[in-house]
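Lab notebook: predicted structure, single chain.

Context: the supervisor wants predicted structures on file for every construct in the current expression panel, including those that have not yet been purified. This is the next one on the list. No modifications to the sequence; it matches the entry in the shared construct table.
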Amino acid sequence: MEDFIRSFVEYLEREKGASPETLRAYRSDVEGFARFTQHNKAPRNLSGLVADPYSVRSYLASLHGACKRTTVNRKLAALRSFFRYLVKEGLLDTNPTLELYSARQERPVHRFLTVDETFALIEAACEDNEQGLRDRAILETLYSTGLRVSELSSLNATSLSFQEGTVRVLGKGGKERVTPIGAVALTSLRKYLNHTAGRRVRFSDPMSEPLFLNLRGGRLTSRSIARILDKYMAKAGSMKKISPHVVRHSFATHLLDSGADLRAIQEMLGHASLSTTQKYTHVSIDKLMEVYDRCHPRSRQ
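Prediction complete. Output recorded below exactly as produced.
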């Protein structure tokens, strides 16, 4: 089974251009199914594969209560893709997930920071040394562009265009996009790059020079960026525990509340579908209702 999973992951990387995060998630999801079927002694074909719908349904049923619906749906999507690959390679006759449907998605209210909370977070990074300048540049860039943390981590110094006020981003599925970046963020980035110019001479190829460096001079990871965020949330006096994705939600919500076009926000976030971006509209409507209830003379009659 491990050989099939390995070839599947290689196929996703080579043919589909899947991101490292997607590759890790799909490998983990398919391996979880393999462990479940092994423990439950599910019937296998001559190749050692479990290919009956009952086993897949039993596996998904075992996840309910332990995982969120979004997680269960992602695992089903991984299995769909895995079995589709096996059919394509002639290792299975039919895809056992064809008649299985995703669970109805929950519609949680996405967490975001207020404008004041966001400004307090950024202002907390005020030290004038290399680490302080880097962290300030990271926070400014996250909020100014709404990038995913993996996209931020993978930025190179050549990704920035100070003249045009843009940043070139490699998003999900290897799709490239160009998104605006604000003047305040660019000022912080310029200060940081000038301060670290001496440490960057080791990069002979400018195209591989990371924008954000760790203490050893290598590329800063997504996990490290999350820790930086925790540090400055605490320094700002906030008890909230947030992820870099909350800053992305804040970016989109603040733009929408200020009257930005939903299509423009979709382009900046790198969403393939407008429906993905529309999840932010209910937050904006809630804000409108709050203002209406507070201000309209007849709203409470």
